[in-house]
């Protein structure tokens, strides 16, 4: 491990970005984008989550391959759960 | 992969006997923490799955329920959590550099933000109680039905929305409470000068946990509060 | 004590024959595969048992063999899969002209009602050679309608309909089991399927407890509950005209379309706002808790009986109605 | 090799320290393994006792031994005890705990204190469950299906659910410990391709424990919330969908079958090469098939729901995916068989269990093909066919593997030899008793006898097969008591074991029997491949006898 020490400026920059994105996502939700409201909300949430993971959680700077493998694996299995469950719900009442 | 020989028998107090060296121990702790977070992803994943299914089935009720939540409190709470994540990150940084006093300050700030979040959450829950939006025998969504006559609302499915709301925010809050407990212990130990630039694994791992709980909220916020805020026609 | 000791269940439906054929195929296949493996193990065990002076021969492995015994079973598995799928699709797609029987399960009995109005408890009389479709729901927990002699089974869920169909081939009396654990007397939730020759069945129908046909009961309820004040055939109604709706596609307020099947009608009675027909407001009262499962079945049967519109192609389908005002999703 | 007398004088993990405290506060993975051994054996016999009562009740068609409610509690608690308190911890928490560090040349697991914590969580869960049993028990079946569990059952559903929730965390922590240990604690030279396949199997198992168990945990939390706080999540009368519960439940509970069977496969993969004196045929295929089973195992869960009311199309997808997971299982069976080819085979007790495992697992696996088949499943679902099938996998497979492993490593664990003659006899009794118990149930199932029936007086034609099954169960019971008796006996009176009684490959055999507290006097350096039987002499006839 012996992580690199990141500058506090970087942290504050990330924090400011996160705050901006929070305001943006709240404001955008009042604009009618049709079905894209949900998409935008989720994309912004994912950007925010990625910033936290990459910088606050140091994944961007780690030399550990396993950390990344674990993250990818967790989201892969989460996706399996969601996708295969929805496979039932979206087709259940098709005639 | 550390294939280094496990030969060193003499070691400092922070190295447990069965590890070869400090680096192996820290690598192990870090991997363990990330694996734990992976299990947490699946734990919340089960609930996200339920949420997704019911949102797909009962979209109108979810949209109306979402509108009835207080978006100002929700946004403020998101901001509070992001601030707490910043103080955690800075706290870990202080620990890395061995600045013990600074570490204590950041831990304290984190606790303050964490408790603020829980306080606001509590206020929101209390509002739900006042509005009879807590699922159960006294659940009543007449106010929502009246407020949004344009949206067809089934009260039962509305209850499902609030069930998901309470289950998700409740388990998130439980994680926050655990986090606050964790950071209180860290604060105590930091005050006793337990951590140094050589040994700050607990700070780092608790930090990872805190960030994870933050990420869960980053998703919960749009999923619960921002389902459908477009102006009604 | 042991009156009979069968090793094979009675085979009394068209499905049963199909399932048995696949089952026998699978039994043979499994027997061949396990005998092959067991023989190999026994032969190796005997032939290569430890002997003085004979050393084991180290073998690394063989990619060719590995691929063979991965791909080959997979091919066989796919045959089983497709064969099974064909049977399943057949078994899960009821013929359109099937006679319908409504089934309500509750802890711990089966209540069945024929289209003609006959009610039965824990017994179902059906004629040989006719397709029978069961429309099932539960009043409490999950049950499962299982007739071994027909090789059919379907869970019966509260809050929605599930369906099942069969065509009996052999007269006789067969077991009806509840196969989904449902509480204390799960094992007493059993009954009989009585399969009769058509003539006998007619006699049974005639001699049975008289009851109004299901649709007729439904029609009365339709009046009593006041449904008819809004669901009218003139265009003044505040609800869509129901004539000819059944089985058609319906355009919904939010742009989706659904098929107006049993489940949709059921849901529209219990939770009308869930899928509102385009052009109408979500003003219909909720009937959840106000009608029993049996009454619900009667209402569904009535709506169904409104059936096809007359030849003149009345625009009975609300899909063609212009929405009176723009709507929010 | 050291002589027996010297072995005993050396310090080992058993005589390192004495007293209750030295056990209850130990962080030694070997002692924790023994703590687990004692506790899971306790639960095994509780679950077995329930099974006995179930079989006795079914001896006659009428419900004449116990009340219907009692019977429902018996099979529910039999399932929950056996699955959550015996099978899931069985091989991983006992043999895995003991052997994973030894096999990779580590001093301990990566997190010894978490290891102890996970045993305590198990004990807390166990006590909670015992409390639940003593105060009325639970009657939901082991599956907790909603809305029965959340709205209709009037038994201790919440207590049982919370107990299993806690047991789940114990299981998660064990898996977490294994993954980290296998990644981080391997001895110098112990590369991934030199790992014993037992380790690969445990690695795969741990993946499932880590990613599957939390979903069960949250599902149980939701059940508890719905039952205790009236949230409407699964109950259709409160707007929920009961099938969602089944989706979430089986997302864990189908892979959970692989938590039970994969470690047993790992055990068999150690035993077969040792008693054939050969390296494993197709090492990399066996290793990768474990991983494949773990991953594909997550894609098949809805084959438990073909008649539950899911969509036709998703049923089709899940059926096809279920056949995919059968392939890696088949690969394993073929490779074990091929490993024996041109070997030098002896028939000690562990090998007899391995034979039994392969035979019974093959039959369990093949009948799995029936259940994954959309054409057959609607008939045999929820009948005794399913009961027979999963007992062939979990008892014929997992328990046979567990017993085989216990015999194989008993000399290492206890430092004593068990009586070989009795061992073989018990293996034979278990095999015969097992088949007699469960084979008739396949026929019963196809005849249509539904599971969880307390009374079948309306269909007395099922009786003959039930009598056979009950007779078999009593034989099986004897087969399970025997090993416990002679293992206990051997701890005091058994012959002292040499370090490597089977002349087996693997690091665990290179240390003393029993091993010292830190496993190896010197950190081993691995410069040989796994299953290097070419360079290991065959054992003396003395052990073979």
Overview of this protein structure:
- The complex is a heterotetramer of chains A (95), B (233), C (329) and D (545).
- Chain A has 95 residues and is mainly α.
- Helix content of chain A is 73%, strand content 0%.
- Chain A has helices at 8-28, 36-56, 65-91.
- Chain B has a single domain (22-225), classed as Four Helix Bundle (Hemerythrin (Met), subunit A) (Up-down Bundle), CATH 1.20.120.80.
- Chain B has helices at 22-57, 59-68, 71-96, 100-130, 142-147, 155-191, 201-225.
- Chain B starts with 21 loop residues before the first helix and ends in an 8-residue tail after the last helix.
- The relative contact order of chain B is 0.16.
- Chain C is of the alpha+beta class.
- Chain C folds into two domains: 8-39 and 64-211, Immunoglobulin-like (Sandwich), CATH 2.60.40; 214-320, Cytochrome c-like domain (Cytochrome Bc1 Complex, Chain D, domain 2).
- Chain C is elongated.
- Chain C has a five-stranded mixed sheet with strand order 3-2-1-5-8, covered by helices on one side. In chain C, strands 4-10-9-6-7 form a five-stranded mixed sheet.
- Chain D has 545 residues and is mostly helical.
- Chain D contains 17 helices and no strands.
- Classes of the chains: A mainly alpha (95), B mainly alpha (233), C alpha+beta (329), D mainly alpha (545).
- At the C-D interface, α1, α2, β7 and β9 of C face α4, α6, α9, α10 and α11 of D.
Task: Indicate the topology.
The complex is a heterotetramer of chains A (95), B (233), C (329) and D (545).
Chain A: H1 8-28, H2 36-56, H3 65-91
Chain C: H1 14-47, H2 63-92, E1 99-106, E2 109-114, E3 119-121, E4 123-127, E5 131-138, E6 143-147, E7 152-156, E8 162-167, E9 172-178, E10 191-196, H3 198-207, H4 214-224, H5 227-230, E11 249-251, E12 257-259, H6 262-270, H7 293-305
Parallel strand pairs in C: 1-5, 4-10
Antiparallel strand pairs in C: 1-2, 2-3, 5-8, 6-7, 6-9, 9-10, 11-12
Helix pairs in contact in C: 1-2, 4-7, 6-7
Chain D: H1 4-9, H2 20-24, H3 29-57, H4 68-104, H5 112-134, H6 148-152, H7 157-184, H8 197-229, H9 242-276, H10 283-296, H11 312-340, H12 349-372, H13 377-380, H14 384-414, H15 420-447, H16 463-493, H17 541-544
């Amino acid at each position: 491990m012996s992580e690199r020490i990141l500058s506090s400026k970087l942290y504050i920059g990330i924090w400011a970005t996160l705050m901006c994105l929070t305001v943006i996502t709240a404001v955008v939700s009042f604009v009618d984008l049709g079905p894209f409201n949900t998409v935008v909300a989720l994309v912004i949430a994912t950007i925010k989550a990625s910033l936290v993971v990459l910088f606050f959680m140091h994944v961007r700077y780690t030399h550990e391959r396993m950390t990344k493998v674990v993250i990818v694996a967790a989201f892969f299995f989460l996706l399996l759960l969601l996708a295969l469950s929805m496979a039932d719900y979206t087709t259940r009442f098709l005639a | 992969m550390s294939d280094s020989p496990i030969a060193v028998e003499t070691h400092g107090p922070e190295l447990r006997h069965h590890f070869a060296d400090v680096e192996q121990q820290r690598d192990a702790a870090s991997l363990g923490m990330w694996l734990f977070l992976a299990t947490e992803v699946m734990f919340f994943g089960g609930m996200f799955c339920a949420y997704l299914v019911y949102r797909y089935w009962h979209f109108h009720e979810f949209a109306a329920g979402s509108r009835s939540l207080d978006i100002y409190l929700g946004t403020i709470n998101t901001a509070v959590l992001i601030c707490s994540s910043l103080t955690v990150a800075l706290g870990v940084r202080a620990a890395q550099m061995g600045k013990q006093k600074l570490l204590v300050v950041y831990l304290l700030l984190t606790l303050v933000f964490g408790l603020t979040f829980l306080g606001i959450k509590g206020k929101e829950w209390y509002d739900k109680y006042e509005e009879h939006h807590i699922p159960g025998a006294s659940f009543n969504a007449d106010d929502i039905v009246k407020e949004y006559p344009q949206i067809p609302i089934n009260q039962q499915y509305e209850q499902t929305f609030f069930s998901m709301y309470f289950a998700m925010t409740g388990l998130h809050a439980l994680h926050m409470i655990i986090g606050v407990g964790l950071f209180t212990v860290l604060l105590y130990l930091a005050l006793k000068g337990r951590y140094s630039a050589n040994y700050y694994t607990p700070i780092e791992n608790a930090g990872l946990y805190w960030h994870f709980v933050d990420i869960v909220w980053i998703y919960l916020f749009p999923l619960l509060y921002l389902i459908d805020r477009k102006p009604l026609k | 004590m042991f009156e009979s000791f069968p090793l094979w269940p009675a085979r009394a439906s068209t499905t049963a024959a199909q399932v048995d054929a696949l089952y026998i195929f699978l039994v043979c296949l499994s027997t061949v595969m396990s005998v092959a493996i067991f023989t190999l193990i026994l032969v190796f065990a005997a032939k290569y048992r430890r002997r003085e002076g004979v050393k084991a021969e180290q073998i690394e492995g063989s990619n060719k063999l590995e691929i063979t015994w991965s791909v080959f079973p997979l091919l066989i598995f796919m045959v089983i899969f497709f064969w099974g799928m064909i049977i399943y699709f057949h078994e899960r797609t009821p013929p359109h002209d099937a006679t319908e029987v409504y089934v309500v399960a509750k802890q711990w009995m089966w209540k069945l009602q024929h289209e003609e109005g006959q009610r039965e408890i824990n017994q179902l009389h059906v004629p040989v050679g006719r397709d029978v479709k069961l429309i099932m729901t539960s009043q409490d927990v999950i049950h499962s309608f299982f007739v071994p002699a027909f090789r059919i089974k379907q869970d019966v869920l509260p809050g929605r309909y599930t369906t099942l169909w069969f065509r009996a081939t052999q007269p006789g009396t067969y077991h009806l089991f509840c196969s989904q654990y449902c509480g204390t007397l799960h094992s007493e939730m059993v009954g009989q399927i009585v399969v009769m020759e058509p003539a006998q069945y007619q006699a049974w129908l005639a001699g049975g407890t008289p009851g109004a046909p299901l649709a007729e009961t439904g029609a009365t309820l339709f009046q009593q509950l006041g449904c008819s004040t809004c669901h009218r055939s003139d265009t003044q109604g505040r609800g869509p005209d129901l004539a000819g709706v059944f089985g058609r596609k319906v355009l919904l307020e939010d742009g989706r379309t659904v098929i107006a099947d049993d489940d949709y009608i059921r849901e529209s009675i219990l939770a009308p706002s869930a899928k509102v027909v385009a052009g109408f407001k979500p003003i219909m009262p909720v009937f959840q808790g106000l009608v029993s499962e049996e009454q619900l079945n009667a209402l569904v049967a009535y709506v169904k009986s409104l059936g096809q519109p007359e030849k003149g192609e009345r625009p009975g389908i609300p899909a063609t109605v212009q929405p009176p005002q723009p709507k929010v999703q | 090799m050291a002589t027996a007398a010297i072995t005993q004088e050396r310090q080992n993990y058993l005589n390192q320290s004495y007293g209750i405290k030295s056990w209850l506060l130990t962080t030694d993975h070997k002692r924790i393994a023994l703590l687990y051994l004692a506790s899971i054996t306790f639960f095994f016999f509780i679950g077995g006792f329930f099974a006995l009562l179930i079989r006795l009740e079914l001896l006659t068609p009428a419900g004449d031994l116990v009340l219907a409610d009692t019977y429902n509690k018996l099979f529910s608690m039999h399932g929950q005890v056996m699955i959550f308190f015996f099978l899931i911890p069985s091989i991983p928490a006992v043999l895995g705990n003991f052997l994973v560090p030894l096999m990779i040349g580590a001093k301990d697991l990566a997190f010894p204190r978490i290891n102890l914590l996970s045993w305590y969580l198990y004990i807390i869960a166990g006590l909670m469950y015992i409390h639940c049993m003593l105060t009325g028990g639970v009657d939901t079946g082991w599956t907790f299906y909603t809305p029965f569990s959340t709205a209709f059952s009037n038994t201790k559903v919440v207590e049982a659910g919370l107990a299993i929730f806690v047991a789940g965390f114990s299981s998660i922590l064990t898996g977490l410990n294994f993954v980290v240990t296998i990644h981080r604690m391997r001895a110098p030279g112990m590369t991934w391709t030199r790992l014993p396949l037992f380790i690969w199997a445990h690695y795969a198992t741990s993946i499932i424990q880590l990613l599957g168990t939390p979903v069960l945990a949250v599902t149980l939390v939701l059940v508890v919330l719905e039952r205790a706080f009236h949230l409407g999540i699964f109950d259709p009368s409160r707007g929920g969908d009961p099938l969602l519960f089944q989706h979430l439940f089986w997302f864990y509970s189908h892979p959970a079958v692989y938590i039970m069977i994969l470690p047993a496969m790992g055990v068999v993969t150690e035993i077969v090469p040792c008693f054939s004196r050969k390296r494993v045929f197709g090492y990399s295929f066996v290793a990768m098939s474990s991983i494949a089973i773990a991953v594909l195992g997550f894609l098949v869960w809805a084959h438990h729901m073909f008649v539950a009311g899911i969509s036709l199309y998703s049923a089709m997808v899940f059926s096809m995916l279920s056949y995919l997971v059968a392939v890696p299982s088949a690969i394993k069976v073929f490779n074990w068989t091929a490993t024996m080819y041109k070997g030098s085979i002896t028939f000690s007790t562990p090998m007899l269990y391995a034979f039994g495992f392969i035979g019974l697992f093959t039959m369990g696996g093949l009948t799995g093909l029936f259940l994954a088949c959309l054409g057959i499943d609607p008939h045999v679902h929820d009948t005794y066919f399913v009961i027979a099938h999963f007992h062939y996998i979990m008892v014929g497979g997992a328990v046979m593997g567990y017993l085989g492993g216990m015999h194989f490593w008993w000399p290492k664990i206890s430092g004593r030899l068990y009586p070989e003659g009795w061992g073989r006899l018990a293996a034979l009794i278990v095999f015969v008793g097992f088949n007699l118990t469960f084979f008739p149930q396949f026929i019963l199932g196809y005849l249509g006898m539904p599971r969880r029936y307390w009374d079948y007086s309306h269909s007395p034609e099922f009786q003959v097969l039930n009598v056979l099954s009950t007779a078999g169960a009593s034989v099986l019971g004897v087969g399970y008591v025997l090993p416990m008796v002679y293992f206990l006996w051997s701890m005091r009176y058994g012959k002292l074991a040499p370090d490597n009684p089977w002349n087996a490959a693997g690091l665990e055999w290179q240390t003393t029997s029993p091993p010292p507290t830190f496993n190896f006097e010197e950190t081993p350096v691995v410069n040989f491949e796994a299953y290097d039987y070419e360079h290991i002499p065959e054992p003396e006839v003395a052990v073979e006898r």
